[in-house]
Amino acid sequence: RPPRSTPLYSSAASDVYKRQHVLVYVTGGGGGARCNDNNYRGGGGGAGATTIKYIDVSSVNSVNYTYGGGGSYVRNGGRAGSGGTSSFGSYCTASGGSGGYTDNPYEGGRGGDASGGDINLPGGPGSMSHGSNNENVGGMSFWHKAGSHHHNENNGAENTHGQWGSGGGHGYYSQNSYAYGNSNGGAGCVIVWEYT
């Protein structure tokens, strides 16, 4: 059967899942990017962690699952928003990445942590850009890494959005709305494969 996946909305959601043997992939939300209007400076968001687990649910009536939303970007002040935590019941949990920050301590967001799975993968950290030599700053999730752009004044800058739990990126001219308006972290996900 095809995987059952929650929609990738930017806000958190929850539901109830009822089946038997399952293989689940759980990814936390990505952190947003901090964008500055000067000196190319920006801090990428950390990615959400991913946990993978095979579960015998033949004697279980239902399992609640939740996926975390992506963190929002900030412009010129403060730390960007953190991604939310995703989980599949009490079996396994993946936390979201933290937001980027271009004030002291000048850092990209840290990646999330995972627990309870047969495989637990931390989210990739974001990085900090002080100049034009580094714009590819969003943390990489199990599924995706946000892109960057240097001098793009149209909707091509949307590639800096995080998706599938990746951290938000940024690009040159963050004062351009296409640059800073597309630097949110990607929502997490819960994907469930069914087995007989």
Notes on the protein architecture:
The protein is mostly beta strands. The strands form 3 sheets. The protein has a 5-stranded antiparallel beta sheet with strand order 1-14-3-6-12, with no helix packed on it. A 5-stranded antiparallel beta sheet has the order 2-7-9-10-11, with no helix packed on it. The chain starts with a strand and ends with a strand. The protein has 1 helix and 14 strands, in the order βββββββββββββαβ. It has one helix at residues 177-180; strands spanning 4-5, 13-17, 21-27, 34-35, 42-43, 50-55, 63-67, 74-75, 86-88, 92-94, 114-115, 119-121, 128-129, 189-195. Strand 4 and strand 5 (42-43) form a beta hairpin.
Ordered list of secondary-structure elements with their pairings:
Blueprint: E1 4-5, E2 13-17, E3 21-27, E4 34-35, E5 42-43, E6 50-55, E7 63-67, E8 74-75, E9 86-88, E10 92-94, E11 114-115, E12 119-121, E13 128-129, H1 177-180, E14 189-195
Parallel strand pairs: 4-8
Antiparallel strand pairs: 1-14, 2-7, 3-6, 3-14, 4-5, 5-13, 6-12, 7-9, 9-10, 10-11
Descriptive tags:
single chain; 196 residues; mainly beta; five-stranded antiparallel beta sheet; 26% strand; disordered N terminus
TL;DR of this structure?
By secondary structure, the protein is mainly β. It has 1 helix and 14 strands. Residues 1-12 have low confidence and may be disordered.
Query: Strand percentage, roughly?
Result: 25-35%
Share of helical residues: under 10%
Terminal residue distance: 10 Å
Contiguous helical run count: 1
- The helix-and-strand class reads mainly beta
The side-by-side strand order for the widest beta sheet comes to 1-14-3-6-12
Query: What number is the mean pLDDT?
Result: 82
Nearest-angstrom radius of gyration? 17 Å
The tally of beta strands, per DSSP, is 14
Shape, per Cα inertia axes: elongated
Task: Return residue spans where pLDDT drops below 50 for at least 5 consecutive residues.
Answer: 1-12
Secondary-structure element string: EEEEEEEEEEEEEHE
Largest sheet: 5 strands, antiparallel
